[in-house]
Design goal:
By secondary structure, this protein is α+β, with helices and mostly antiparallel strands. The protein has helices spanning 6-31, 50-60, 62-82, 101-104, 120-186, 192-227, 250-260, 262-283, 324-390, 395-430, and strands spanning 45-48, 88-94, 106-115, 234-237, 289-298, 307-314. Helix 7 crosses helix 9.
Length: 436
């Protein structure tokens, strides 16, 4: 028989104590980890082009940072899927109430290892790999949708800025007209009622400056929110609403969108993941085996089995539960994912169709303005101003010319913005830039 002394017990206690310390350190490192710090918001003044705004958006947009954590979570599941099951170590100590442990005590140790069969680990890894790819595609889709919002907000600011400049120009020009005609009134060239009408119209132009300023500041705050900037940051946008004629094919755009859109890719990866989950569910019909080894040591006065060892094999018998419910659930999930993919592909084609329709209509509208309406409105305003100063027209004609010019120019700025937005819609509907 093999007896064991207090030295063996001391070593065992020391080993267990070290293991407990290491475990405690690992747990404290895991649960005490700090989250990744958020990029600090910029301060001072920022001047941005649309490309620079997109670069800042990719670094600081809070919604985008949240979406990026989804990739890290999926990668964590992928790491878990690659790991083998941990072995199980069990210990059993038996003593006597009347005799010392060193004489009749028994120490039994056993270790068991689970072995997964039917390719379960491989199917789990496949599912996790597609999960990571789906998360990456979902992140790319978040960049697509939020990127559209950033560019749209940027051009909203440009639109508001141009309207503010137009309002200031109109107010300054009309203030000069009022000043000149106030001198003419004092000389008796025009009646007082004309001067009063001009002053009333000047107040309206000044009110337009105030309204345009408020709109400009509001649109700036919207862009600041998307870029993760504080409201105190002075934001200057560089760029204009420009027009460049383009020829696009709606069928080519649709075909490109079905290949490029990240949400379609994400749904494709989701289908593949659900298919891998179905394979895993079917593999669970095959039971796993557990192989174990054990040994027992006892004191010199114990039972007649001085030192024993043994091997064991444990296999569940699949008599009742063969994962029938899990298979049905996995099949239903796969069909739902396939249906969702079909729905997404249909919505992609609808998005492209709507964006293309907006593009063609707004392009015709801009061409109509550029075909002569802008120049005609400017010329009418200049002619009416000179004619009124010479006494060749009435005050009503002058006011109508200024109002027509203002309405035409505001409509032209709006048309340029809607045309630019239609190009952004096409890029977003396709999933990549195709209009530059």
């Amino acid at each position: 028989m093999i007896g064991f002394s207090n030295t063996h017990g001391t070593r065992l206690c020391a080993w267990l104590g070290c293991a407990a310390i290491v475990t405690g350190l690992l747990c404290s490192a895991s649960f005490g980890a700090e989250p990744a710090p958020r990029p600090p918001a910029s301060a001072g003044a920022v001047s941005l082009t649309v490309d620079e705004a997109m670069g800042l958006f990719l670094k600081q947009n809070l919604d985008l940072l949240i979406a990026q954590y989804g990739i890290d979570s999926a990668k964590g599941l992928e790491v878990t899927a690659r790991l083998f099951p941990n072995p199980t170590l069990s210990a059993d100590v038996t003593g006597s109430m009347t005799q010392s442990f060193g004489q009749v005590g028994v120490l039994a140790l056993r270790i068991d290892q689970l072995f997964e069969l039917a390719g379960k680990r491989g199917h789990r890894q496949e599912s996790a790999r597609y999960g990571v790819q789906s998360a990456e595609a979902s992140f790319a889709d978040a960049v697509r949708t939020l990127g559209f919002a950033v560019k749209d907000a940027f051009y909203h600011v440009v639109q508001a800025k141009q309207k503010l400049e137009l309002a200031k120009q109109n107010s300054a020009n009309f203030a000069e007209v009022v000043k000149i005609n106030d001198i003419r009134f004092k000389k008796g060239a025009i009646p007082e009622v004309d001067v009063i009408k001009l002053r009333v119209q000047l107040v309206d132009f000044q009110n337009q400056v105030i309204t345009a300023t408020q709109d400009y500041l509001t649109e700036q705050n919207t862009l600041r929110g998307l870029l993760g900037l504080k409201p105190t940051v002075v934001l200057n946008v560089a760029g204009d609403l420009e027009y460049k004629s383009r020829t696009l094919s709606v069928e080519t755009l649709k075909a490109d969108a079905l290949l490029s859109r990240p949400d379609v890719l994400a749904k494709n990866r989701n289908v593949s993941q659900k298919d891998a989950n179905l394979k895993l569910a079917r593999a669970f019909r095959v039971p796993d085996v557990t192989i174990g080894a054990d040994t027992a040591m006892q004191g010199p006065q114990g039972p007649n089995s001085p030192h024993q060892y043994g091997l064991g094999l444990s296999v569940p018998l699949p008599l009742f539960n063969r994962n029938q419910g899990g298979i049905l659930q996995a099949e239903a999930d796969l069909k739902a994912a396939q249906t969702d993919l079909g729905k997404t592909r249909l919505l992609v084609e609808i998005d492209v169709e709507n964006a293309y329709r907006d593009f063609t209509q707004t392009q015709m509208l801009v061409q109509a303005y550029r075909g002569g309406a802008v120049n005609d409105a400017t010329e009418v305003k200049d002619i009416a101003t000179k004619a009124y100063q010479r006494g060749g027209t009435t005050i009503l004609d002058l006011l109508d010319a200024f109002r027509t010019f203002n309405t035409t120019m505001q409509g032209y700025i709006d048309a340029l913005y809607t045309y630019q937005r239609s190009l952004l819609e096409i890029d977003a509907a396709v999933g990549r830039e195709v209009t530059r």
